[in-house]
Amino acid sequence: MSKTQRATVDTLMRQGPFDGSLPPEQLRKGFEAQMTSGPAPTGVTVTPSILGGRPALTVEPESSPVTGTIIHFHGGCWVFGSPATALQLTASLVRRTGVRAITVDYRLAPEHPFPAAVHDGLAAYRDLLGQGVPAEQIVLAGESAGGGLTVTTLLTAREDGLPMPAAAVAFSPALDATLSCESMTTKHDADPLFTRADLTSVFAHYLAGQDPHQPLLSPAIHADLTGLPPLLLQAGSNEVLLDDSTRFAVRAATAGVDVQLDITADVPHVFHAFEGQLDEADAALDRAARFISAALART
Length: 299
Description:
Elements: H1 3-14, H2 24-35, E1 44-51, E2 54-61, E3 66-73, H3 87-97, E4 99-104, H4 116-130, E5 138-143, H5 145-159, E6 167-171, H6 183-186, H7 196-207, H8 219-222, E7 231-236, H9 242-254, E8 259-264, H10 279-297
Parallel strand pairs: 3-4, 3-5, 5-6, 6-7, 7-8
Antiparallel strand pairs: 1-2, 2-4
C-alpha cells in the first residue's frame, strides 16, 4: 500500500469535488470531459453495438477471448455517464479476464427517472440470454450507480423467473437511495468527492418525487436478497457510500447468498478508476478479475 499515492489521489479529488446542485447537462459535459480525456484503452478492441434495445459498446480482448460475457453498467448517479466514461474500467476487466464485455448506455434521469434504468438493465440481460448465451456464462458488473443497477437487474431477473448469471461484481455500489446509512455522517470528512447534501440533490432527478423506501431503490435495506448468485462488493473506506456495501453484504449473507465484501483502506469512491496510479486500484481489479474468472470456470 502506498500512502503517497493515496494522499495524491485524495488531494486530486478534493480539487474538483462533486456539486450535485449543477444542472444535469452541465454534470454530463463535465464528467464526459473528465473521464474521456486520456488515451484510448490498450489491449482491447471497442465496437459500437446494441443490447436490450439500447446503444452499447462491446469491448473485446485483442488476444484469444475466454468464453463468457460481462454486462457492464456505468456510474453517474443515474443522471450522467455513458459507456465511454466507463471504458477504461471496462477495458481493465477485459484485459485481466480475457472475457468480452458489453457496456450499456441505459436511460438517464431526469428525462427518464426510476425505473427506466432498471428496465434497461433487465432488457440487456434478457437480450443476451435470448441470443443464446447461457446464464452461467454471464457476469454482471458496474460501478457506483451502475453497481446499484447490477443488483437491481439481478432482483428483477429473479422476479421474472430468469436464470441467475454466474456472478456479479459491484464497485462502490449505490444501494440506498434513502441516504440513511451511518457512513453518510461518519465518512463526511474522509470522503473527498461526495456529501449527503450533494447526493440528495442529484438523486432527486432519478427519484422524481418517488418514495426511496423501495426494494429497487434501496436494496441494501429493503430488498429480499434470497436466490442471488455469488457477489463481490468492493468499496473504499473513505466514502460516504461505504455502508451501502457493508449493510447489503450482511443482509445478503443472512439470506444465504455467497457474498464477498472487499474493503480497501483509505481510498475513495470507485478508486478503481486510478488504475496504474494507485497500487490499491490495480490490486482490487486483480481480485475482481480472479473472482469473475473463477465464477465462469465453474460452468
